[in-house]
Amino acid sequence: MKMEDWELIIIGAGAAGLAAAIYGARSGLETLVLEERMAGGTTSDAPMVENYPGFSKIGGIELAEKLTLHCRETGAAIHELEAVKGLNLKGKKKIVETNKTTYRAKAVIIASGSHYRKLDVAGEKELRGRGVSYCGICDGPLFKNKKVMVVGGGNSSVTTTLYLSGIASKVTVVHRRSAFRAEEALVKEATSKENVEVLWNTEVKEIKGDKLLSHAVLYDKISKETREFPVEAIFVQVGEDPNSKLPRESGVEVNKEGYIKIDIFQQTNIPGVYAAGDVTNHPVKQIGTAVGQGITAALEAYCYIRRPYYRK
Amino acid sequence: MKMEDWELIIIGAGAAGLAAAIYGARSGLETLVLEERMAGGTTSDAPMVENYPGFSKIGGIELAEKLTLHCRETGAAIHELEAVKGLNLKGKKKIVETNKTTYRAKAVIIASGSHYRKLDVAGEKELRGRGVSYCGICDGPLFKNKKVMVVGGGNSSVTTTLYLSGIASKVTVVHRRSAFRAEEALVKEATSKENVEVLWNTEVKEIKGDKLLSHAVLYDKISKETREFPVEAIFVQVGEDPNSKLPRESGVEVNKEGYIKIDIFQQTNIPGVYAAGDVTNHPVKQIGTAVGQGITAALEAYCYIRRPYYRK
Asked: pTM, whole model, 2 decimals?
């Protein structure tokens, strides 16, 4: 196994990790970003982004590409399709093992983001990729003029609904509560679409289909009734869980939901280890806040590594 | 005097205030931004911005315009050339008085930024606008093919030096320390310019001129020598001080340098009063971090005002 030395290693090439790398490289640190998929993170999954300040309206993939290009131009290295398999963060030299190489770094920024939460109902796993999806922009175009369902009540649910309303013949939003937890601008636009309906106080109890998805079993929490609802795709948008297992096992403190605890400097409980973006316990999970946190983490890591005169 | 009611009032239309307004308005809050100058903040003063993630290289004025346009498109109101003259923040209704109107708001975000620090030497005040400047992009073009001086050692000093090196015949950087506190990428580029020289460990003791600036009096801290240095413009880039006087007088807690104390939610010590950007004690002062803080402040203000089900 090769052994490589870097000054700063960033785990995850989403908005937080790419912003951190821009600042790490521009500060003169030898900076490496490790990403198990392709660079871009969950920004790439957004059909349209209207709230990253400076871009009134931009496709998620296009914004992710701009962030990635900006990062590459600063000289930071991005290794895609390279998954982190092991971490040893407690020593002065931080060890990061991937499927390809073992790295040593002076500081590490964890920007590993989060993954889609599942409904955990019968049929969900079996029909994933056969009607069950977690990403509207990835799979929405497969269901042109079909009846689709979106499950959830947050920004990602409403954004996905808006996107699908331009593709599908009918979008049924199923939400277990009686109000959305989403930006009013998005809610107004989505609910004004003629082909969008919302089933409030409703839960998906089971997903059915023979080879391909055909029905959702819905439970109405008010009437207490259960019914089968015919639909060809279900987009599950019920939130995320943090990708914090390896850091946690290496001694990084997390809260009870598994989010990495950070302070105002983006420091974790381990010296030289920082966290930024969706993996942290910061109360807001937006592209703009991930970027701000990534910048702070990188500049703090710079101070930790180089100990400049103004931070003795 | 008119009295107007708004849900959210943001003081300052720089990067932090504009980002806050984008999120305030998109969340459905009646949002007003008050700005004593024109919208854009200190972003407009940057000759070139290479570190706001998503834009590899963009003029400060152009970026400020994009942020302002984005903000206007969300429906937030921006009142330019309207200076805040009085604050009463302690009650449930926050009172904001300007030179034109008295406003009441349910929540206030202070994003009033900072102002240029002075050298506090003889001649500085008298020759301001006659050779002494605090903004390279504003006044640099007046000194085409002239000898100019930049005082300071941070990012703004080095960025201004780079900008002026393309205009002036010679740029002399005067810094009281022996190293810059700036991004290495900027330092490398600036110090590689043939017409840039750096005088380390040197202080400006006086600025001289009859009607127009003609000399700087320089003190070399190593050799202990003082000399007169002929120059036609001096760009002072020695940092900023926070614009926190009115909030402080209204009970908002500040640290010993006058920066508003915030927590991870951008809350101040007064319920319903938030702060974001350069006016806060956050350790990093960058466009990207100001944006992240503005977003957080707006979403927290939204929760404070509307008390949605997920934040009871």
From this structure: 0.88
